[in-house]
Amino acid sequence: MRKDEILKNTKPIDHMQYIPDMEQITDTTVMEQVLECREAYDDSAYTALDVAHALQREILTPNDFASLLSPAAGDFLEQMAHRALQETRKHFGNLINLFTPLYLANHCENHCVYCGFNCYNHDHPSNGWFALRL
């Protein structure tokens, strides 16, 4: 089958599609599992062979990812970059999605500490209140 035939018969995946309750992780132990793994991580436990095996797997396990983060992976940076490019293209193609907030005013009700549009952030240099108080 030719590439154009495959693409014609393939339904595109909407990665931005909402899955019901996807933002609800409070009832899970995800955070606890992550913290336990972080505490148990020993980067000296992995060898070059572990890294090579991880790069050959189609689906990586958490242990495979740990090996890719270890010092043993230092000699595999080129292969890791190639694999990352393959995975990116597999899931997203050649698309680049940018998010740029569009501000229609210089006043915002959100409480983002870093933002000059935050109406409660009077000390931010880009906020008009800062200039008025000088």
Describe the structure.
With 134 residues, this protein is mostly helical. Helix content is 41%, strand content 0%.
Detail the topology: elements first, then pairings.
Elements: H1 3-8, H2 30-40, H3 48-56, H4 62-68, H5 77-92, H6 128-133
Helix pairs in contact: 3-4
Q: What is shown here, in short?
A:
The longest helix has 16 residues, at 77-92. This protein has 134 residues and is mostly helical. It has helices at 3-8, 30-40, 48-56, 62-68, 77-92, 128-133.
How many distinct helices? Answer: 6
**In total, how many domains does the architecture comprise?**
2
**Overall SS class:** mainly alpha
- In total, the number of strands is 0
Helix fraction? 40-55%
Strand content: under 5%
Largest sheet: none
Give the overall form: extended
Order of helices and strands: HHHHHH
Features:
134 residues, mainly alpha, disordered C terminus
